[in-house]
Amino acid sequence: MADSSFDPLVLTLKESEREDLLDRIFQNSDLSHEPLYTKTADNPKKADDEFSALPFFLRIWYAIIGFIFGKTPVKAYENSVIAKVGREINLTSPGYYNYAQGLLLPDMYQALVDLKNAVRFFYNALDSSVNKDRGAFYAFMGSYEMLEMHRQLSKMSSPVEFAKLHADMTSEMLKQTALDMYAETLTMMTDVQRENMYRNVRALICLKELAGFLYDRLIINFQLEAALHGKVCPGALVKGQLAGLNNILFSLKEVPSMALLSTLFVFSLRDEFMNKTEKINYELQKLLAQTEKSLAVIRDFNNKIPLTLILRCINKDMSYEPSELPGGEDWFVIFRNYWKSRIEESYDNYLIDLKREEINKTFDIFFSGKEMIDIQNSPPDKGSDTISLENALLFSFFLTFYKRIFLTEMNQVLRPILIDGEFIRKENRLDFTESYNELIKMEDAINNLVRKIAPGGDYGNRYNQLRNDVISPVIRHRKMQVLTEEIKAESYEIAWKAKSALELMNAIIHGILIPLEDSNENSKYASLANLSTILGKANSDFIITLKETSKKLALAVDLVGNIMDVEVAESK
User: Fold this and answer.
1) Residue 505 CB partners (closer than 8 Å, separation 6+)
2) Cβ neighbours, 10 Å, residue 554
3) Which tens digit of pLDDT belongs to each residue from 507-527?
4) 519: helix, strand or coil
5) Which element (helix H / strand E) includes 315?
6) What is the spatial distance between Cα 109 and Cα 86, in angstroms, rounded to a whole number?
7) Which sign, positive or negative, has the C-alpha torsion 92, 98, 100, 102?
8) What residues contact residue 369 under an 8 Å CB cut-off, 6+ apart?
């Protein structure tokens, strides 16, 4: 099961470390809490309503103006209001917009460039955190806003610790109990905590939209105008893009909370936190300084540029106003699903670990303490597309079984049966021979696959070529998937044949040991006609060894089933 790279932060970062981070932030930060967005435009008004409220003589006046310019009286009135707004912009915020020419001026171009450069910092921080795993990000942010709930959920996500509190429960019961308690724990959330989390997520969405805004598509429309000493752009050409930017700025009214900033910083500095390096203070100061600078640029942009008024002029619409960005309402679903998934996966992994421990104990008994043969599975390189052998443990068992048990112990009774055994049912001899031959061949099949995966082998060479070919990432990934599926198919075929041969041999030997008088006529496998005389004087020892072989085959079949269950679970 693949864990998020952020899970260690969520699950293991100590409370004292979180508090220490907050202390450092407060000590090193002069972050202003002045709102980022201050309203610079009056409430929007509908032209129809405003016109209807005018004195009679003014309505007559605008009717005349409208008749002259081919417009309705209402539109003539609205244009006069917009013209007044345009003149006010020229007086109070010169250098950004020229109403008469409908141009965005050089100062607007520079302000957009500055805004783009300032918010790039947030883009990098967001890209390395919430963009990779929203669930883990929200869960960690919850550790600041809802500490007690975080403690409880963390306990439930630790099967080893949880098992100590419920020693009388089976592993399956532990998992269900943890899930039941998790659902109950979520009800501890207060309205204040829920609102704080929502505001944090809303701020996060706005930061993400602001940082990811396509500034270059807007800025590229500005062209150098020598007479105006800089780059200008017709407002009508970019009014849609400006409106989109205005909606984002309007939505990001408040300075992000310390809980949100702390979460961003921890995720950005996760390597330092996990490795406890001495660079934390230095890196933290850099992040705080850049945050203050970026927020100051956003605030300054909003204070100096009446973007809503400019858009009213560009659109010639006195009722225009920015709208709030949607989103954030699903934060609780993501938060809840993250913890449910963590609990389920942690207990599934816990069960797998317990099964592995049991398998390893059985290995010691089965092989009488002899060392397991390790699969030499050395992929060409470590990475996301690394070639790996999913059946490594199973193949390790098969090789050890073959060399330590099959060739040395079992063959003492299997070979005489192969050569001299008089099967009562002829078809049993065919099955026995097929099973025996497959067990003999499985060592070469496994070793051949391992050689093909290793550097210099067929699969290894193809893997290296794909890593080095100058092709698009999408094509490379698709070809890697094809190669991986090909290896899986060959691996599965080897595993299936070896498992089937082992099960078949187990069934045949079990049938041979059943006395003729106890055997069922309809059963597929029967005894040997010469079982009591096959080795002459040594027959009594032969029967004892055959019975021991039957027990070991049955245990081997059970082990193979358990190993395959574990490896299938781990591959999900």
Assistant:
1) 414, 432, 435, 436, 439, 553
2) 15
3) 999 999 886 445 555 678 888
4) coil
5) helix 307-315
6) 18
7) negative
8) none
Q: In the structure encoding, which two tokens stand for residue 475, read together?
A: 């094509």
User: DSSP E strands: which ranges in 29-124?
Assistant: 97-98, 103-104
What's the pLDDT tens digit per position in 144-179? 889 899 988 988 888 988 888 888 888 888 888 999
Angle among Cα 548, 441, 458 to the nearest 5 degrees reads: 140
Nearest Cα neighbor of 380 from 461, 501, 269, 296 is 461
Q: How far apart are CA 482 and CA 134, in angstroms?
A: 30
User: Looking up tokens 């007690």, which residue turns up?
Assistant: 148
Q: Residue 190 is encoded by which pair of tokens?
A: 């207060």
> What per-residue confidence (pLDDT) applies to 27?
66
- Look at strands 223-225 and 103-104 and give their pairing: unpaired
Amino acid identity at 307: L
**Taking the model in full, what pTM does it have?**
0.72
Phi, psi (degrees; rounded to nearest 5) at 60: -65, -40
Residue type, 462: R
Structure token digits, residue 456: 């210099």
Contacts for 122 with CB less than 8 Å, ≥ 6 apart: 207, 208, 210, 211, 294
**Amino acid code (one letter) for 148:** E
Q: Which amino acid is at 476?
A: R
CA angle 445, 450, 451 (to 5 degrees): 95
